[in-house]
Amino acid sequence: MKAVVLVGGQGSRLRPITFDVPKAMVPLRNRPFIGYMIDFLRAGGLDGAVLSMGYLPDPIQGYFDEQNLDGFSIDYAVENRPLGTAGGIKNTEEYLDGGPVVVVNGDILSGMDLKVAIEKHKESSSLATIVLISVEDPTAYGLVEVDHDMLVHRFIEKPAADEASTNLVNAGIYVLEPEVLRLIPASQEVSIEREIFPQLQSEGYLRAYVSSSYWRDIGTPRSYLAASHDVLSGAVGARDDFDYLHVDSSTVKGKGVKVLPPVSVAEGCILGDKTTVGSRSSLGRGCKVGEGAVVEGSILFDGAEVEPGAMVRGSIIGPHARIGQQAIVRGLSVLGAGCVLGEGNILDQGIRINPGVVLPPRSMSFS
Asked: Which residues contact 314 (CB under 8 A, 6 or more apart)?
């Protein structure tokens, strides 16, 4: 059995990072997210995956060109134009084997046992099985009601708090029979959630499997940062030889440096005198943290620089962005690739700065 992984979207919720980096390639513990996805599929006993691609496909293909997957096959189906979730699945059909297929949204980090969902599907007479997960705040999602036989009863768009009849949401993981693909017209933009699933539900062919395992959608800065924290702390991901304090041997450390686990510091980083790399931080290749600077609970992409006396807390710094001396970035703020935040500036409360923007020293303060 193969999987289809939907990685064709533009990742608009994660902008400005995804202007330059496809969402599938954002790092978790200094490893591209798509690597965790492939681990998930391999653990589920699948033979290979077809990546349904559209936006920025080259970095993803380049990554897998350098990987040894021990017989797990990777194929690529690149859209010439957006085809939607169902259209993207249909576009992979030539690479599939004609049997059931697992479909996974390309921004889902899951710790579930995929084998169980596949087995539950095989035991049923349904054409499709949709994995559901319970959430604390059901008003933030479209909900899925099921009956006592786990047949999907109805879909509910984001309800008001007093109208939520369930807390089960679509986990973005499906098992589909080949008949479902035949329902999807070729070369057209079609949504599996809004068009195909309602049709299957109305005919009694859509069943659910409820998972209680770890699950997170990494598609927003808040959820992406939380996923990074979870992977760093070992809540999800491979556990073999897990190191809560991973500092590459090539890292240069000055005097009085404090590195507080769990952290991941990639190769070629430079930590100046009296710097602090606080818990739940991930520093990409070639990052520089200047004297007395503090990085805490944050993600620094490759080549990012934090100058002396600056502070980055609970934020995301894009590739080769630079934080000036005594500047502060906090409150889930996000800097795109190559941004320069001049000396003394403050970014707070989720401010997002597009790639390449230069803010002169003390020119403006956000709060």
From this structure: 225, 296, 297, 298, 330, 331, 332
Give strand pairing partners of 4. Answer: 50, 103
Q: Which fold has domain 245-359?
A: UDP N-Acetylglucosamine Acyltransferase; domain 1 (2.160.10)
Task: Decide if pLDDT at 6 tops 60.
Answer: yes
Q: What is the pLDDT of residues 321-361, one digit of tens each?
A: 999 999 999 999 999 999 999 999 999 989 999 999 999 99
Of the candidates 35, 50, 52, the residue with the CA atom closest to the CA atom of residue 1: 50
Whole-prediction pTM? 0.92
pLDDT tens, position by position, 256-309: 999 999 999 999 999 999 999 999 999 999 999 999 999 999 999 999 999 999
Give the residues across from 109 on adjacent strands. 216
Q: CA 23 → CA 68, 83, 131, 161, distances in Å?
A: 22, 18, 22, 31
Give residue 159's pLDDT.
Answer: 62
What CA–CA distances, in Å, run from 26 to 18, 227, 309?
8, 11, 27
Question: What's the CA gap between 353 and 3, in Å, rounded?
Answer: 36
Average pLDDT taken over every residue of the chain? 92
Can you say how many angstroms the Cα of residue 65 is from the centroid of all Cα atoms in its chain? 21
Closest CA to 306 of 288, 318, 291: 288
For the chain, the domains span 2-220, 245-359
Q: 344 vs 327, 338, 356, CA distance in Å?
A: 4, 18, 19
Q: What is the mean pLDDT of residues 8-20?
A: 92
- Model confidence pLDDT, tens digit, residues 84-96: 999 999 999 999 9
CA distance 140 to 169: 10
CATH of domain 2-220: 3.90.550.10
Task: Specify the DSSP class assigned to residue 201.
Answer: H
| CA dist., res. 213 & res. 219, Å (int) | 19
